[in-house]
Batch of 2 targets.
Target 1
Amino acid sequence: MASVSGVAFYTGYLQNCVVFADLDDDGVYGTSEPQALTDAYGGWSIDVLESEKASVNIRLQPGGDCMDTSTALPLQVPLAAPPQCGIIGLYPTLKLLASDVLAATIPGSDADAQASAAIRLALGFDDATAFETCDFNPIEALWNGDESSDLTTYLSAIAALSATSELIAAVVAAADNSLYVPAWACALQSYAEQAIGLLTTPSLAGEGLPAQDMVEPMVAAAEKCTGVALSTGLVSSLNESAISMSTYLDEGVSEGVAAAEVPEDALVTYARFSATGQTTTNTGALGQALDEIAATGDIAAADDQLSDALVQSTTPQSLDALASNTEVPTPTRTPSPSPPPSPSSPPPVPPSIPPLPPLPPLAAFTTRMMMTFDADYTDTFVSELMDALAAAAGVSTEEFKQQVTVVSVTVASINVVMDIPDSLFTSPDSQLCGWMDGQSAAGMAMEPPEMANSVGDPVPFYCPTRKPPTEPPSPPSLPPSPPPSSPSPPPPPSPSPPSPEALPLTAPSSLSGGAVAAIVIIVLLLVIVAGYALYVKLRFSGRVGMYLSWRFAHSNPYLVWRYVPEERRNEMQRELFGSSSSPDYIANYGAPETPTASPEKGREEDAAKKTDAADAPGAEPADSSVAPKIADDTAAAASKEPPKTQYRV
């Protein structure tokens, strides 16, 4: 078993919330899935199998006594964390949604990295900012006195996005509260898709997702996902109200946290603005209008009343008045070290918590197409493209436009990003797969579209009807054995294993090519060293030590280590290889040149002998005529330089 642990927060730490390992990835808690309750500081710990630790998503289920300790408000929406993410919160949930969308076109590890990059861009951070939502706890950072602009930006984004998404969900699900979570999830998914779109628009890096751009797609996604059709006037009022609230909270949190002198004041300011946004739908004229629609179940009858209430309740003046009357608990810091989780078995799930519908993953029923066309952009290009795609799908253009979402269009290279439901590919009359393969694109006088992933790198196109399997097929299961009607006979003796000679010899598959090459080199070096040692042992038997002393010595007086005088080294050399005339010596160092005696020197030696003989007692006197001649020869010889005797070493 392996332990997975972390903290959970929405505005502040979430207490008494059910956290579970979503082993089947259906978004709903199952009784067989490991779970735990969060403590007073959002802490949680779950035991899973070691093989599941790196791939399981962790989800948090609202309901029951699940409460935000910073605002004292109950949590209304489910949250999640990707695998190996220690933080459960709003932006980790966004990362999981973005990763699921990206995983449809790029590998899992790359999808996770690109999802993190998309979140950074959505927050307005550039690529150089070392921010990872799964590693960053903004509440603890405030307690630590972090005054960076990145922290302020993150807190204001959490406050604005949580309130905006809850406002959209409350209006869309006004007549049917069971649609609240699906509407919220689809609005959040739209935000994740817009963040992914920033990956293909480098010029927007550092700007983030402004409220005036992100709200309208979020409202449209919530309507489309739930099947609720709001009137044009109500949609306009909802967009205006959501933008106003998002801007108010963004500016209020940024300025308030930056002006706070102590961490407690910063936390209170952040919590009060967040609570203001989250309680707007429960108070004042807007809360009253939503309650009346919930009672009647008819949103169309209260359309005008709801539109007016939305605009009135989200003006800066109304939000200021609500914020001034909002009280939040006094913040307390997590004890250090955090109290360990109880060793007892996890508490049972409170029976009052109803099962929630799973977050609708958009990637499960749509295919994201990123198409680059080699053509000149015109004002009617997108319209012509929609007509061509609708014809290929076998539906009308209007029907195609209702089901398809155009995420972005880049004019420079005509890069079109589009979400197309899989049903348009798989219908009997659809020819979209062929069109995407380039068989019909020539009808628009365009080159076949080049498929690309979320960062613009070309990838092969896979039709939803023939996408490659993401997992290898499981081996066929064995048929169940019939129940025995009588005691089974003893099993026959198992056959003896084959003899070693019959076993095939296979190379170890665990060694890579580099490891094999290294082993070969090491073996060769050992063979060379062993061969040299054997040669020395046999050649210099009994004198190995002397050979090694001579071979690995030197006669440089400036280097002390291994120094041996030259005379001694020459003596050892002669002892090892014999005299200079021996075959060993000649084989190693060559034969020296034999010195040639000069005739003058011979005459000098003869004269010396005769002189010694004349001086000897009883010797006859020397011939006087010879002396001058010897003297002359000696003088002549002395005037010449004697020849040098050369030896070859």
Target 2
Amino acid sequence: MKILIKMLFIASVVCISCEGPEGPAGPTGSTGSTGSTGATGSTGATGSSGTNGTNGTNGQDATVTYSAWTNFPASSSSISNTSNTQHPGFYFTNNASSITQSILDQGVILVYAKLPWYEGFQTEFSSVVAIPITIEWDPSGYSNLWFYGAKLGQITIYMEQTGTIGFWANSAGWLADHSNAQYRYVVIPGTVSGRVSYNVDFTDYDAVIEYFGIPE
């Protein structure tokens, strides 16, 4: 019996020492199913607020100002003669507080006049005209150039007689024919970059007062 056990032990040792080489790798197994989505993480802390931007500069006040209808001077002593001897004429100056240095530099000044004296010579003469204007009112060669000048706080209305001959010899006669004449001005502020531009015909008085909401 002992001999048999010894022989079996020897045989097992021989078999173990005679084991063959490792076999090839088996095929790759199939991919397992995707796992479930993990829980959402907690929200991070709120970041600090950014600094406030600087304030922009204030815009230009575009309020349009205007005068009332103003009568021509009642006395010839307020009328001056122009120095143009070839085209004698007359002018007068009134205060205009709306005409500031800013307006002179960057704004727009519009002047309109009611000159009913000419209506007796031109049946289609407009009741309100924009100045400057040249009015040819008589076939014999009489015509008048109306224009204006402006400086700080003042406005001046000019009339020069053009054509072949002057009709009025002195300011008293001229003023007598224009005793019911009137004028008014409209002041439009400009901007820092330059003069303003509006989609309206400045020579059309009715269009201007409607566009800017100016009462008649």
